[in-house]
Amino acid sequence: MKRKPIFLFWAAWRFLLLLLVPASGQAGETAGNVLLITLDTTRADHIGVYGVRPQLTPHIDRLAGRGSVFTRAFSHTPMTLPAHANILTGYTPLYHGVADNNGYCLDKRFFTLAEQLRGQSYVTAAFVSSFVLSRTLGLDQGFDLYREPLNQDTFLAAEIVPLAQEWIAGQKSAWFCWLHLWDPHFPYAPPAPFDKLYSADPYAGEIAYVDAELGKLFSFLEKSGRLASTLIIITADHGEALGEHGEFEHGFFAYNSTVHIPLIICRPGARPGTVKTLVSHVDIFPTVCDILGSAPPPGLTGRSLLPLLNGRQETERPVYIESKGPFLSKGWAPLEGFIDGKVKYIDLPIKELYDIKRDFEETKNIISSRKLSDLNRQLTQLKNKMSGKETAAARLTLPAETLRRLRSFGYLAGIKVEKKAVFTRDDDLKTLLPIQNKLRSANQMFNQKKYREARELYEQVLTSKPDDIGSYAHLADTLHYLRQPQAAVDILRQGLQRKPDSMELKSKLGVFLTEINRYDEAVVLLKEVLAADAADSDNWNYLGVAFFRMKNFGKAYEAYEKALALDPQNAMVYANLGALYLARFVAAKDEPLRAQAVSAFNKAIELDVKSVAAYNGRGAACKFAGQVEPALADWRKVLELQPDFSDAYFNIAVTLIAAGRKAEANDYLQRLQAQYLKLLSAADRAVLRRLLAAAAGQ
To answer: Strands 230-236 and 145-147, how do they pair?
Structure first.
């Protein structure tokens, strides 16, 4: 069950008292509002007050001059979703179970900071800049408003900061605002003028850009008089490796480049200072409670930092760290460890120990200086203190579109794999780093639509590590975009020889069997997958497509309806349902069916403004109604979203030729021929030749 706050009456009374009497350590002003700012993928050493990159963040630095800078703050997990779950719950993944971006959701039974403050009559709002923190993943608990990018993957800082500022300006009572800024995340592409100013270091340019946008918010708070009554906390979810230890981004290792984070706490009227005590993300929740004078929920993993803010010395507590993504998606060795005082222990098959006071960059492994049994005992004791029950409740089956979007940001969605009981040096992340980096390069090539290069890299991975099941799925997707569905089927069958019970591979094989017109086999396979898990919306959708291709419209409709019952927000199902209605209209010439098709396509576009299938289908529906210009507009939108979509070129050309606009038709066909001829099948090349002849008047 969700943890409930206790002593609410006492907490409310105490809060009213705080409005009248300054809290200990404050200079006559009280924090009535709370602003939590989380910077995605931001290294502490790229914030000016941390001394390494002065001048990069003048606005954050100026604000930090009014508060306390924690020089030894650490994230428990170098991944966005788990790190934010840690911040908002006051627990680590050992308790709440959210261990990765892929396939996890914060369960409703966990009590969040937003729920705590809303229970004290705060108005609460979140402004998040990436779908990685979508409300569907559970972090919306306790927020009256949860603003997220719905029809795009991310918000720029210049888009999200004004939304937060506008909301703050409209509040008449105490408020809590969480503002998340995604920009420093890969790929690094700062807008002008930061792209030119930091052309040699675009990552730094992203952080400078974010600082400039935050400067506008800080200026507003100061000029409106709100700064004097607002508790401001600035931190990052994790850092970025930037090539250190051979890692380029984050989510693989847990070296200080990715787990050392900035933490700045500014209390109205408090004396500025620097705190060198070891702290972590889970300390933020109880600290906010303590500063506001309310009792935190019992049992939080973290502890209040208010005594440190007030200048007192506190005994340090070890910080648990982990990186479980490679383990969860590939079955590679799980990384766990801790930071305690000056030492940092990393538990992998090849053990690591560092004196981070003398060697913060972790260049010299001193594992031989300590008894391994003592280190393992300390880690086990720390984990036992932080562990909870039912962490499996955090697992979530993500829709195919969400997995695609995660992949676009470098998060390789893996395949469920058997977890080993014992790991060897061959499973160590350091051993497997070359494979990981090759997969990263392959994923970048795929996202850049360089499918031939991606194919070569995935094949190299499978040559080196033929048991990497996820790479079979990624290679099959790549072959699909190379218009080689039979090759995709063949590679998936190879993967199933390695892992015969992989439902993910069987599901994907069913999709590609449909593509090569082997519908009966596809239906049998997809029914097998659904027998194992009938709650997967995407697999019902795939089954519906197979039935649709068989012209079994009744069975297709039933499958689509089951898919929508499980996931009413699945845009692809609506697009496929529109295609079903349109096919029935073509067969029966029944206008209400065409109208139903348009309605389904409109719904798909409402849910996903980048739905190529929906625009393409709606264009066809318009054409059947004689609505030439709307049809052409939809097909042009298809080419804007997917420039190599050959069907849209053909649709536009046929329509323009029929309208006597042959020169325009020829322009589109020439573009298709010049840029994408290699991607066309033999049948499509024949269609292209016929249309070119027709456009030329032959």
So the answer is: unpaired
| pLDDT of 390 strictly over 70 | no
Q: At what angle do helices 571-588 and 400-408 cross, to 10 degrees?
A: 120
Q: How confident is the model at residue 420 (pLDDT cuts 50, 70, 90)?
A: confident
CA–CA gap between residue 494 and residue 476 (Å, rounded): 11
Over residues 440-483, the pLDDT tens digits come to 999 999 999 899 999 999 999 999 999 999 999 999 999 999 98
Asked if the model's pLDDT at residue 290 lies above 70, the reply is yes
Q: Which two tokens stand for residue 566?
A: 């499980």
3 state SS of 510: helix
Q: Which residues contact 115 (CB under 8 A, 6 or more apart)?
A: 5, 141, 142
- What are the sequence ranges of the domains in the chain? 33-126+152-224+233-308, 335-394
- Look-up: residue for tokens 């979703």? 81
33-126+152-224+233-308 homologous superfamily: Alkaline Phosphatase, subunit A (3.40.720.10)
**For helices 612-624 and 628-641, angle between their N-to-C axes, nearest 10 degrees:** 160
Q: What is the pLDDT of residue 151?
A: 75
Query: CB–CB of 203/240 below 8 Å?
Result: yes
- pLDDT tops 90 at residue 411: no
- State the sign of the Cα–Cα–Cα–Cα dihedral 266, 267, 273, 278: negative
